[in-house]
Specification:
Elements lengths: L29 H24 L13 E6 L16 H18 L3 E4 L9 H9 L4 E9 L9 E5 L5 H11 L7 E6 L3 H4 L5 E8 L3 H7 L2 H19 L7
Parallel strand pairs: 1-2, 1-3, 3-6, 4-5
Antiparallel strand pairs: 4-6
The chain binds zinc ion.
């Protein structure tokens, strides 16, 4: 997916303390303001430290599941992102889910695929396939694109809070698949996540617009390592592992 399609809300916003401005201490209401700031500043600082303490705490997670709905992004006339060289996003995504399927089955999961070949599946259908599978999680595989060549790395998106730990578990494992940048776990209102009744994540496993990432992603051995990594993240989540990220 390209940057322009979506609005991203970063989950790791730095806490900005209000900067000291002499004006606020000077006027007629100086006393009230001083009291307000004295009460407010420690609160901000306290919240910052609570935030740090909670770092790595991803809540209850996705719970029990025995089915994985694998969703390869795009397909047919919808190429997804064009790579700087080689296969477009739709083919790379399909390749990764086809590699994931036997690994998940070996681990004892039932696997449902929204597509297993180069066909177009509307977004509503993808979410509907997930929604009719009880006891499932939904894992969508994509590759990223940006206008500039510099953006690189992996980011995993979630919408519902119970999907956040799954996203973090997948991110933690994926970052080991190839030397890549950690872009974090992010909240997004993507259609397939927003309309999904199951714990669901959308994995952007590198930028095909970045020459380094793309060179890696065009390599079938790297895609195999990515497939194995995402599956490990799913198994970690099922075991209730708390990511260290
Ligand atoms: Zn995409």
């Amino acid at each position: 997916m390209g940057f322009k399609e979506i609005s991203i809300v970063r989950t790791r916003q730095p806490v900005r303390l209000p900067s000291g401005n002499g004006y606020f201490f000077g006027g007629a209401k100086a006393g009230v303001l001083r009291i307000f700031l004295m009460a407010f500043l420690p609160l901000v600082v306290a919240l910052f430290f609570v935030g740090c303490a909670g770092f790595g705490d991803y809540g209850t997670g996705a719970g029990a599941f025995d089915t994985v709905v694998l969703d390869a992004g795009h397909g047919a006339h919808d190429l997804g992102a064009r790579s700087v060289r080689g296969e477009p996003e739709k083919m790379l995504a399909l390749d990764v889910v086809l590699r994931m399927k036997p690994l998940l089955e070996d681990a004892g999961y039932r696997v449902v695929m929204t597509r297993d070949r180069d066909v177009f599946i509307p977004l509503e259908t993808r979410a509907a396939i997930s929604n009719r599978n009880r006891g499932a999680i939904f894992v969508s595989i994509h590759f990223n694109w940006a206008k500039k060549r510099s953006p690189e790395g992996i980011e995993i998106y979630y919408f519902s809070e119970r999907s956040r730990r799954l996203a973090a578990n997948i991110l933690e494992e994926s970052l080991r698949a190839y030397r890549c940048a950690d872009r974090g776990v992010k909240f997004a209102r993507f259609h397939v996540l927003r309309n999904n009744l199951r714990p669901s994540v959308l994995c952007e496993l590198g930028f095909v617009s970045n020459p380094y990432d793309n060179q890696m992603l065009q390599n079938p051995r790297v895609r195999q390592r990515l497939a194995e990594a995402v599956v490990r993240g799913i198994i970690d989540e099922r075991r209730g592992k708390s990511p260290r990220l």
